[in-house]
Design goal:
Ubiq_DUF569-assoc; 2 domains; mainly beta; single chain; Trefoil (Acidic Fibroblast Growth Factor, subunit A); 297 residues; 4-stranded antiparallel beta sheet; Ubiquitin-like (UB roll); Actin-crosslinking; DUF569
Length: 297
């Protein structure tokens, strides 16, 4: 469908809730969020048409590279159907939970219903507005506006986007046994002041180097105790001995590699990073969503 151009970028806005399908920061959940004054890359999805199946496409999150999929997890109380989730793509074949087909609602508008094997992507919370989990359901597929989505095209550019700056070093960060303790919650009372420290154990970074001829060279894995993409780039530049690099992310063996342009997901899952030399032929093929552009009225 022309509303989902192969390799382009889109946002999906709920007709009923006027919020957007958002890849949650844990790189697992999917929820409805307002766009806000500063649009987020988490609301951006990249359609990927399956070869030979023009009507079937996948939706890859531009934030963490994972794909919008149907789970077998029941929706939370107050929601309908099962959860929509973000998942790595590890199958060489088109896999049913990832397959989407779009059906226009009105011929002269950009509203669609997104179909997956007799189920439909839906918003929740028409009356209980705090219910913001995106789900997939079978009921009322042709009737309710909770299953209707406006497709907003996002301009594409080869111009790299600036990375989020590294966080400022807090004064109360505690290091213990080489583990960075980043989250400190303080309980205050009339006679007490108690701090609870939650350690972040880090994640494994598996990275490869792509040379100018497109060949891949494996590099040693390492543990990274940070969420900052800027700090990760600095670490990889030190390990490569080259500051002229761009980072790409591949979420699964058969996933498309996309530029890594936001901070790392809030989980401890390993990440597969492809290091590309800035200005190389591989770099010239990268495309970036200009997601800070205002949406269509």
């Amino acid at each position: 469908m022309e509303l989902f151009p192969n390799g382009g970028f889109v946002r999906l806005r709920s007709r009923a809730r006027d919020k957007y399908v958002h890849a949650d920061a844990d790189a697992s959940g999917v929820s409805l969020r307002p766009l806000g004054a500063t649009p987020s890359v988490n609301a951006v999805w990249k359609p990927e048409h399956w070869p030979g199946e023009e009507d079937i496409f996948l939706l890859q999150g531009a934030a963490y590279g994972r794909y919008l999929a149907v789970s077998d997890q029941d929706a939370p109380p107050g929601h309908r159907g099962v959860r929509a989730v973000q998942r790595d793509y590890n199958s060489p074949q088109v896999d049913a939970p990832f397959m989407w087909t779009a059906f226009r609602v009105d011929a002269d508008q950009n509203y669609v219903r997104l179909h997956n094997h007799q189920r439909w992507l839906r918003a929740n919370g028409r009356h209980r507005y705090w219910n913001n989990v995106v789900t997939v359901d079978t009921r009322n597929g042709s009737l309710t506006t909770m299953m209707q989505w406006r497709v907003e095209a996002i301009p594409v550019s080869p111009q790299p986007l600036p990375l989020p700056p590294p966080p400022q070093q807090p004064t109360n960060v505690v290091a213990y046994s080489s583990v960075l303790l980043q989250q400190i919650h303080v309980s205050r009372g009339l006679f007490k002041r108690r701090a609870k420290v939650h350690p972040y154990a880090g994640r494994m970074i598996r990275h490869v180097q792509m040379d100018d001829d497109g060949f891949i060279h494996d590099k040693p894995e390492f543990n990274f105790d940070d969420y900052s993409v800027s700090n990760l780039r600095t670490e990889l530049a030190l390990r490569q001995g080259d500051e002229n690099i761009t980072l790409c992310l591949r979420a699964g063996m058969y996933a498309l590699a996309i530029p890594l342009i936001t901070d790392l997901p809030h989980n401890t899952d390993p990440l597969d990073i492809i290091v590309v030399t800035t200005g190389s032929p591989g770099f010239e093929m990268l495309e970036y969503p200009q997601f800070d552009e205002p949406p269509e009225p």
